[in-house]
Amino acid sequence: MAAVVLALSAPSAGAAGPRTSSAGCEAVRDAVVDSLGVLTQRHGLTGAAVDVVDGHCGTWGAARGVADLGTGRPMNATDRLRIGSVSKTFTATVVVQLAAEGRIGLDAPVERYLPGLIRGNGHDGHRITVRQLLQHTSGIPDHVEAFVDRPVNEWRYRHFEPRELIATALELPRPDKKWHYSTTNTLIAGLVVEKVTGRDVEAEVTRRIIKPLGLRDTYWPGDGTRIRGPHSRSYFTDADAPDGTHPPRVDGTEWNVTFGGAGGALVSAPSDVNRFFGALLGGKLLPARWLTEMKRTVPADPDRLWPGARYGLGLIATPLECGGRWWGHGGTVPGGHRALGAVGPGGRSVSLALNEVPGTDRAEEDFLAVVSTAFCTDRTDRAKETP
């Protein structure tokens, strides 16, 4: 049987607003634990964990499955992991902070900051704005697509420079849709940050976000292939397994993630991801006007995200069946870690961690269903109790 880990802390004494009943809080926890069990038992994922922060129900975490197949150690909501594209929101926040300071124009052409970088194959930095980079409407392909069909060990431990990856992307076929998710966009945005500040984007994210918020489990690994501190292992299936055989799980924990850079390299933990999104969407990192800019969205391609998703400046908005929407971002790394951070309509924040990427559409739907369950369970129960 999959291991179950549940850790709770009391809600803050000063929590404002109507208090959810203890029965309602228990219903949320039970429903979320069950939804994690769907991932590990029905879909066979190695491990799943969640951290929830709620002014009424307190802060609590839950986990199912195992963090390490070799030792059988249970999955834990406090473990570090690679958060992949959740890194994009950190980088985008710094870009918008610089815009608020008058140092970057969101609607200025990229050519102003990085002359000559975007050229060739129909791309022109004079006609692409910083906003379009953060919004994924630049029309620039995703360099990651150049690696997915190559043997993993050809590039798993390699160091990549951002300009090398950008050049790779510009040689790929142009996207056929207006909105095209591309990690390359965020690499370029990171170079804009470097240009205007004189410091690399990793240093600026650390100085402006990680240190002020006290995110002790969050760091840029550089070329380090190991994760420092307590962490879950991560697993992926071997695509090179012989035909007719069941592909074995491969340990993908050690990886050089410079291929993701400003758009995908961060290591963090669910509690830090929650703290970051809570601070961002709570107005602690940006003036209200500029947070509004981040939340100006365009429709996203459901084939590259999920149905109903809209994309702002490094932020995803997703409708909830119980009303309203959650704001946040998800991330995946090829080694097997999967992360998602989200803040719902009532301010509750949820951070998910997997150590194996869902392999089917149904498993992906059930991964997203954990978020909906966390946000909607007690709201649904209260609605049913209303005469």
The beta-strand count equals 16
- Average pLDDT metric: 91
Percent helix among the residues? 25-40%
| Class by SSE composition | alpha+beta
Low-pLDDT ranges: 1-20, 380-387
Question: What is the N-to-C succession of helices and strands?
Answer: EHEEEEHHEEHHHHEEEHHEEEEEEH
Give the N-to-C terminal Cα separation: 40 Å
Give a brief description.
With 387 residues, this protein is α+β, with helices and mostly antiparallel strands. It has helices at 22-42, 87-100, 110-113, 130-135, 162-170, 183-197, 201-210, 270-281, 288-294, 361-385; strands spanning 4-8, 47-54, 58-68, 73-74, 81-82, 119-120, 123-124, 235-237, 249-251, 267-268, 298-299, 310-311, 316-319, 325-332, 338-343, 349-354. The chain contains 10 helices and 16 strands.
What's the layout of helices and strands?
Blueprint: E1 4-8, H1 22-42, E2 47-54, E3 58-68, E4 73-74, E5 81-82, H2 87-100, H3 110-113, E6 119-120, E7 123-124, H4 130-135, H5 162-170, H6 183-197, H7 201-210, E8 235-237, E9 249-251, E10 267-268, H8 270-281, H9 288-294, E11 298-299, E12 310-311, E13 316-319, E14 325-332, E15 338-343, E16 349-354, H10 361-385
Helix pairs in contact: 1-10, 2-6, 2-9, 5-6
Q: What would you note in describing this structure?
A:
The protein is of the alpha+beta class and 387 residues long. 32% of the residues lie in helices and 18% in strands. It has 10 helices and 16 strands. The protein has helices at 22-42, 87-100, 110-113, 130-135, 162-170, 183-197, 201-210, 270-281, 288-294, 361-385; strands spanning 4-8, 47-54, 58-68, 73-74, 81-82, 119-120, 123-124, 235-237, 249-251, 267-268, 298-299, 310-311, 316-319, 325-332, 338-343, 349-354. Strands 1, 2, 3, 4, 11, 12, 13, 14, 15 and 16 form a 10-stranded antiparallel β-sheet that branches. A hairpin with a 4-residue loop joins strand 3 (58-68) and strand 4 (73-74). Helix 2 runs parallel beside helix 6 (183-197). Residues 1-20 and 380-387 have low confidence and may be disordered.
